[in-house]
Amino acid sequence: QVQLVESGGGLVQPGGSLRLSCAASGSIFSVDVMGWYRQAPGKERELVADMTYDGRKNYADSVKGRFTISRDNAENTVYLQMNSLKPEDTAVYYCNLRRSYYRNYWGQGTQVTVSS
Q: 47, CA 20 to 30 Å: which among 29, 35, 57, 106?
């Protein structure tokens, strides 16, 4: 069993920055991939970025160059540094831990709103 808790969402102006955090508790293994998904109103949930235990990163094309994912294995925590935010980044952001293709754990979500 794994529990994921996100924090750091909020309201920010276009061009601003936010840093999301996700702390995992329970049994975490080196095979686990941790990352972030987001879901905007009327849209399907999409992958934003993820990261393996040994440092391999993957980003959606829409956030490359603006977002940075990082992971603290000792603290079982994954972060998402979001810079140069755009209104189209507005969504609920969900932390995800994927142990295998068929076993996933999800956080409760944190709202990110980019608006002037």
A: 29
